[in-house]
Amino acid sequence: MLFRYGLLLAALLASAPAAVAQPAPDPTLRSPDDIVVEGERLTREEARKRATAFIRTLGVAPGIYAQDSVARWTVKLCPRALGLSDEHAALVEGWFRDAARASGAKVAKDGCDANVLLLFVDDGAHFIKLFKSRYPAQFADMSGPDIRDLVEREKPIRWWYAIRKTSGGMGLLAPLSIRSIEGATVVIDVNAAEGATLRAVTDYAAFVALSGVRGRAEPQSQSILGLFEDRQGKRELTEWDRRFLTQLYAMQHERRGLYQRGKLIGALLKDEEKNEN
Question: pTM score, two decimals?
Answer without folding.
Answer: 0.84
